[in-house]
């Protein structure tokens, strides 16, 4: 059943997020106000895979949840960029490695019952080292891990970021990371 939207009003806005109240009519239930989180920009992330090194991960702290975990390089798509360009830029900034042979994995909406946020995920088969990362506030350390270790990281709950976990589990499920 399709809900009818009668309108929407912002209750908070910033460069990063807009929180709205939507006036919606739910068939059989009537009209309600529903919270909606609008994100003005999409996000993109890349699994950097190198046949000789494995997969490059960032170990980082997330202050919102006060948790540590492994993540793939990712970030928002800037104005004028397409998701592939953003994925490449973020990988270089956060790791100092340039993805070679970048290809799309999938795009998805992680919380479409609450937000219009959209993630675009990519995989590369090789990476070229360009130098040190320029965005060092993003992580505590970088580490190349084997496919087996990557699988164990996911199983152990050491990858809590939904964008990273979705990319990794997708790639593992479809045998895209080799051995």
Write the layout of secondary structure elements.
Elements: E1 4-13, E2 18-26, E3 30-38, E4 43-50, E5 54-62, E6 67-71, E7 74-76, H1 83-95, E8 97-100, E9 103-108, E10 119-124, E11 126-129, E12 141-145, H2 147-155, H3 162-173
Parallel strand pairs: 4-10
Antiparallel strand pairs: 1-2, 2-3, 4-5, 4-7, 5-6, 5-12, 8-11, 9-10
Overview of the molecule:
The chain has 179 residues and is of the alpha+beta class. The chain has two domains: 4-38, no CATH class; 43-173, Nucleoside Triphosphate Pyrophosphohydrolase. 19% of the residues lie in helices and 44% in strands. It is built from three helices and twelve strands, in the order E-E-E-E-E-E-E-H-E-E-E-E-E-H-H. Strands 4, 5, 6, 7, 9, 10 and 12 form a seven-stranded mixed sheet that branches. A hairpin with a 3-residue loop joins strand 4 (43-50) and strand 5 (54-62). Helix 2 (147-155) crosses helix 3 (162-173). The longest helix is centred in the middle third of the chain and has 13 residues, at 83-95. The model has no long low-confidence stretch (mean pLDDT 95).
Features:
179 residues, alpha+beta, Nucleoside Triphosphate Pyrophosphohydrolase, 2 domains, 7-stranded mixed sheet, 3-stranded antiparallel sheet, 3 helices, 12 strands, 19% helix, elongated
Short note summarizing the structure:
It is built from three helices and twelve strands. It has helices at 83-95, 147-155, 162-173; strands spanning 4-13, 18-26, 30-38, 43-50, 54-62, 67-71, 74-76, 97-100, 103-108, 119-124, 126-129, 141-145.
- Identify the overall geometry: elongated
* Helix-strand pattern: EEEEEEEHEEEEEHH
Radius of gyration: 18 Å
Total helical elements = 3
CATH topology term of the largest domain: Nucleoside Triphosphate Pyrophosphohydrolase
Main sheet, how many strands, which sense, barrel? 7 strands, mixed
Percentage of residues in helical conformation: 10-25%
Poorly predicted runs are none
Q: Count all strands and give the number.
A: 12
Overall residue-averaged pLDDT value: 95
CATH homologous superfamily descriptor of the largest domain: Nucleoside Triphosphate Pyrophosphohydrolase
Q: What is the CATH class of the largest domain?
A: Alpha Beta
Q: In whole angstroms, how far apart are the ends?
A: 45 Å
| Domains, number | 2
Beta content comes to 35-45%
**CATH architecture descriptor text of the largest domain:** Alpha-Beta Complex
Helix and strand content put the structural class at alpha+beta
